[in-house]
Amino acid sequence: MKKKAWALMVCLIGFSGLQAQDKLYPNTFALNEVTLLDGPFKHAQDLNGKVLMEYDVDRLLAPFLKEAGLPPKGELFPNWAGLDGHVGGHYLSALAMHYAATGDEAFRQRMEYMIAELKRCQEKNGDGYIGGVPNGKALWSEIRKGNVALIWKYWVPWYNLHKLYAGLRDAWMYAGNEEARQMFLDLCDWGIGVVSPLTDAQMEQMLDMEFGGMDEVYADAYQMTGDKKYLDTAKRFSHHWLLDSMAKGVDNLDNKHANTQVPKAVGYQRIAELDHNRTYEDAASFFWHTVVENRSLAFGGNSRREHFVAKTDSKSYIEDREGPESCNTNNMLKLTEGLFRMHPEASYVDFYERALYNHILSTQHPEHGGYVYFTSARPAHYRVYSAPNQAMWCCVGTGMENHAKYGEFIYTHTHDSLFVNLFIASELNWKEEGIRLRQETGFPAEEGSKLTVSVDKPRHFKMLVRHPWWVKASEMQVLCNGKEYAAGSEPSSYVCIDREWKDGDVVEIRTPMHVKLEEFPNMPEYVAILRGPIVLGARVGTDHLDGLVADDSRWGHIASGPLVPVYETPFLIGERADIEEKLNHLRPVAGKPFHYTVPGLFRSGKYKDLVLEPFYGIHDSRYMIYWLSMDETEYAHYQSEQKAEEEARIALDRRTVDAIATGEQQPEADHLMKNENSTKGNFNGKAWRDAKDGGYFSYVLSTEGKSDMSLLITYWGNETADREFDILVDGKVIASENLVGKWNKQEFVDVEYALPDDALQGKKEITLTFQSKPGKIAGGVFFIRLVTNEQGE
C-alpha cells in the first residue's frame, strides 16, 4: 500500500495551486459537468426524476408550516408520524441534485418554491429556526436550559433537523441558491444558541441519541464562511463515546445502531479535512476500515435490524428478515468520498464501486421507481418498495438523493490531474481546463471501457485510470494510441498516463473479470458469488411476496411474508475447489448479458437450470445472495442436526404476529416505546432493557385482530439481582415474575404467557408494560414476541 501511495504522489508532484470554487469539495466535478450516457445509471436517474415530481410538495412542507404557526397547504403524512419533516429535507436535496445533473427547470422551480415556503417559516419563527419536529420549539427551549433528558421524549429530533440543514446546504452547493445559503447559516446560528449554554457532559448525554450529521453540516458552515464558531460547534457535536474509541483504533460498534454512527464519522472526516486534526482523521479512517473490512457484506451494505452485529451473532443475518439498510450505504459512500479527497487511494473507490452497483443501484425498482429499506441477506427472502406520498421512511429520503448524483464520483481531479474512478458510460466537460472526456462502455457486460479525449488545443495533463481489485496484475490493460501504460500495475492502484493530449486521443481500458467465492464475515459456511465486482444473485420464486409495494402501515418497510426454510434453498455442495472450478465454466444465457447457468453446480433438480445474474437487476422476486456451501460430511451433519433447529425457527416465525428486539433503537421506536427509570445494554451478544425501583418500559404491539395468543419473552437464565416485576397488558396485570434463582443456567430462556381473551378481544393493538416493584428490577428482557397459540399457523 505504501508503494502504491508513493507512486501516486510522484505522479501528482508539480501541479498548480487549487482554484477557488464555490462548492465544498474541491476535487469534485459539478454535477452539470458530468452527463450520464445510456446505461443502468442513466435509467435510474431519469426514473428517479419522474418519481420525485409525483410527490406532493405541500404535504412535505406541512410540518414546517404547522410548527411555525402558519396554515399548512396540505395534510401531514401519517406514516412515521413523530419524525415529521425529515423526508422534506431529503427532498430539497434531491431537487437541487437533479437540477444540477439535468438542467431541468421543473426541479429548480419546485426547489425554489420549497425555499420560499421555508423562508416564510423562518421569518415567522423569528430566531432562525425552521423545523418540522412536532412541538419542537418547546423541546429546544428546554435543551437550551440544560434539560437535555427531555430529548428522549421525542423521536431523534436532531437527526430530523439535520435533513433540513443538509437540504438548504445542498440547494446552495448544487444549485447555487444564495437565499438557501443564508437560511442555512441562520439556522446554524440558531443551533449554536441552543447548544452553547450546555456543558460538555450535557452535550455528551444528549448525543447518546441519534443526531445525524450535525457535526458535518457545521464543518461545512465553517468552510463556507471561515468563521471558527461553526468549526467549534462541529466539534461540540462530536460524540466522544465514538470519536475517542475510533481514534484509538478500538472497535466498540457491536450491537450499536449503525446509521447513528456512520454520519458521525462523516463529520469526523469533514473536521479532519478542514482543521487538519489528526485525532479526527484517525477516527474517520479507522471507522471506515473496520466497517468496510469487518462489518460489510458482499454487496457493500452493513447492519442487521439496523444494528452492527457481534461476531458471535453473525448468523442472525441469515435468520432475520431485516438485512442491511440503504441509508447506511448512502452515508458510507459519503464517508468514502471524503476520505478519498484527503488520500486518493484506489481502495476507497473499490469499495465505492462495490456498494454503488450491488446495493445503491439495486434499491430502486426499475419500473415504478420505489425505494428499498432493508436488503435481506437471508436465502430466498425478498424486498419491498415504497410508493410516492405513502411511505415516509428514512430510506425513502436517502433514496431520493442516491439516484440523483451518480455523476459525482465517476471522475475527480487533483489540481490538473484527472482521475477515472468508475467505469460508467458518461461524458465529462471539465470546463475549467477546456477538456472533454467521453467514456463509452457497456460495463459490466463489457469488460472494459473506451475514453475519447476532446481538447481545443494540445494540453498536458495526467490521467489516472483505476486498476480495480478484481483485475489481476498481469491482465489489466490501458492503451493510449497503441502504447501500453498498465505494465507492472497492481490491483487496487492507479495507472498514470502522463502526456500531452491531442483532440481525438483514445484510451482503451481492458478489465478481464473472474468469478470468485467470497465468504460471509465470521461465517465461512455461507458464500457470495461475484464476477468482477458484481454480486451474482438468483431468482428463486415469487410466492407470498406480502406487502411488495408498501402501504402507510408502521412496519410496511419490512418484508413480512413467510420465511423459506434454508434447507429448501439451493446449496453449493462439494469441496470448495470443485465448486469454484464449476463456476469457472459459466454458460452465458442467450440474449441476456451477464446472465449465466452453471452446469452441475446445484444438486437439486429444481435448481439445475438456475440463472445467475447481477443482483442489482433482481426485483419482485425471492432471491439468493448468500449460499450455504459445504462438503458432503458437513451436509450430512446439517441434515441431521441443523435442519431441526431451522424447522423450529420457521415454526416460531409462522406463529409470530409481532416482535420487538428490546434495547435496539429502531424496533423500540417502531413500537412507540415509553419508559421511566429504564436502562438498556448488551449481554452475550444480545441487547436488553430493564427498569428499576418502580420504573417501567412499555411498547405498542399489533395483534392483527387475532385472539388466542401468548407473549413469548426471552430472559437470561441465571439472574441474581432482585428482579421482581409485573407484566401488564393495557394496564391489567397478566403475570408477576421473580427471576432470581428461577432457572440457574447459563443460557437464554423463553417463557410463554397465555393472554386472557379479554386482553385481546376486539383490539388491533395492545400496550405491553413491564413494571418493576419498589426497590426491584423489571427484566432484563432480551426479546418479545406476540404469538398465536396454534402451532405452525
Descriptive overview:
It is a single chain. By secondary structure, the protein is an alpha+beta fold. It has 4 domains: 38-364, Glycosyltransferase (Alpha/alpha barrel); 412-510, Immunoglobulin-like (Sandwich); 515-646, no CATH class; 657-788, Galactose-binding lectin (Jelly Rolls). 34% of the residues lie in helices and 22% in strands. A 7-stranded antiparallel sheet has the order 1-4-5-6-11-8-9, with no helix packed on it. β25 and β26 form a beta hairpin. α4 runs parallel beside α18, α10 (214-225) packs antiparallel against α11 (228-236) and α16 runs antiparallel to α17 (346-360). The relative contact order is 0.08. InterPro entries: 6-hairpin_glycosidase_sf, Beta-AFase-like_GH127_cat, Beta-AFase-like_GH127_middle, DUF4986, GH146_SB_dom. Keywords: Hydrolase, Signal. It comes from Bacteroides gallinaceum. Residues 33-408 form the Non-reducing end beta-L-arabinofuranosidase-like GH127 catalytic domain.
